[in-house]
Amino acid sequence: MASIQTRMTDDHQRCDALFAEAEELVTEERWDEAAVRLEEFSRAMDRHFRMEEEALFPAFEAATGITAGPTEIMRSEHGQMRLLMEAMTDAANRHDRDDFLGQSETMLIIMQQHNAKEEQVLYPMADESITEGREHLMQQLDET
Amino acid sequence: MHPGLNLQQAPPISVPFRFFIAAPLFGAAAGLTLLAFGPGVLVSRWAPTTLASTHLVTIGFIGLVMCGALMQMLPVIAGVVIPRPILVSRMVHLLLVVGTLSLAAGFHWWSAPLLKLSAALLSAGFVVFVAAVSAALLRARGGDSVTAMRAAVAALAVTVALGVFTALELVSARSGPNVASLTNLHLAWGILGWVGLLVCGVAYQVVPMFQITPRYPRWLTRHLAPGVLAGLVVWTALYIAGDDVPALAAPAWLATWIAVFITFAVTTLRLQARRRRRTEDVTRAFWIVGMLSIPASGVLWTAMQVGADSALVNRLPVLLGVCLLIGFAVSVVNGMLYKIVPFLVWFHLKRSAQGAACPDVPNVKRVISAGRIRWQFRLHLGALGALILAALWPAWPSYLAGLALVASFSLLWANLAEGALVYVRVTRDRRKRQPVSLASAAAGADSPRGIETPPR
Questions:
Q1: For the domain that residue A133 is a member of, what is the CATH number?
Q2: Given CB atoms, is A42 within the 8 Å cutoff of chain B?
Q3: How many Cα atoms sit within 13 Å of A69 on the Cβ side?
Q4: Which of A107, B63, B84, B316 is least surrounded by CB atoms within 10 angstroms?
Q5: Measured between CB atoms, does A23 come within 8 Å of chain B?
Q6: Tens digits of pLDDT across chain A (144 residues)
Q7: Number of structural domains, chain A?
Q8: What 8-state DSSP symbol labels residue B450?
Q9: Would an 8 Å CB–CB cutoff place B343 in contact with chain A?
Q10: Under 8 Å CB-to-CB from B17, ≥6 apart: which residues?
Q11: Which residues of A fall within a CB distance of 8 Å from B210?
């Protein structure tokens, strides 16, 4: 069966690619295209967060009995990233290149270390521990 | 509860910062040594003042930053916490700082008591560090990066043991020919093992992360660190065996592992060429210099092995030292500081606001001014160029190199201090504005001078 690790890591990389494209468009001050790509990036991120918050994390918590630790921190980092994406969008709307690039640099670091923690610790643990209802979970992830 | 699984265990900002802020001062001290003693420093790798300034760079700059960075990064990339981080960092920092100073003074004045003192202080400092980090690393998960870090820390332990042994051998009455052999072992373990493997372990993580490149190929990351560690053990045995094995055995074996590092460097450069992220990035420029220095060092090392005795070949050991220490290690470490320090300032200021909106926190690009970072990179390149020149013709270029080193490390220090000051200023302003409720102070106050308010 497909692993949670592969499924979610692929999604991270898809988001990364959109991020890089949006950032490059802003660097070149192609604002209209940047706004479109940024919108795609925000939507992809939002979907990824919902996959985790509505399906994966509850399944992880149920399977491991861990509710207070890692998933809680992952959720709070999602909150941080939502704020940073708002700041990026706002800067792009104002055509403020420098402000955007500062916010996006911050976003990149938060996003990447968040992904690293998930890919190296959380997803492998989820793959090990979530055995029951796994097909249902994968279906939920696809449908989010 | 799963032991060690707590994904938000970044140590207090003082833990890595005390290392980062001290480190450039040692680099500047090495530059001052070059300015004060001129060509004498770069004439031979064995001159006392050469040994002094080399160790100011290796332990004082590279070592301090690597210790601080490892204590910072382990929790983030390996999900483990270092026990008693504040106590450990204070002890390690104090012992390494005083130990490095007494080592440099001990070499310069060739003082047995100072060298013995430094051996005691430095071994104590590294023992505490290795013990604390090992305790965390043994519980870590996180794949090939963690494997490389474990191997690097093991190599650090061997490097320190060999260094202490060499120092005691130097000051003993029976100081004999094996000091040269011990030194070669010491620096192979230090450069290929400790510095080399740690850079690899960090690179596996940060190169794909920060530039959005493809990942390093698994065949490389899986086998590199265990291979290099085992390779160093075998090489040490061959080296010690000396006349009992064919003369070419030890260098040929070592050449294999140097080739492995060149493969790593070339892979890194190729990954960076395929990066998705195209924004201007000084850290990447530092890394390119660092990665190019690896094959260059390989060429110099090979020339040293096969070259006939000549004036030029006699200059190669010092040139190789410059290329490895300043070209490779200092470049990479210096570049990483510009990613780590602004992020830590931002992260800790956000965290201390406890979730409140905090318009007083600058984004990571406003922590250290970009123009001054670019200038420091240029000065670093200038210092590297001048040192290469000075390694070949020590006469007047030595002074130029000394001056450039002092300038580059001083500006690095000023840049890091600028970052630290942002943290101090925002924290102080928050306290001043409203000592009662930090959250409302952060949300309602004007931003401090010089930091624009990000949109809300």
A1: 1.20.120.520
A2: no
A3: 19
A4: B84
A5: yes
A6: 578 999 999 999 999 999 999 999 999 999 999 999 999 999 999 999 999 999 999 999 999 888 777 888 899 889 989 999 999 999 999 999 999 999 999 899 889 888 988 888 889 889 999 988 888 899 889 888
A7: 1
A8: T
A9: yes
A10: B68, B341, B344, B420
A11: 108-109, 112
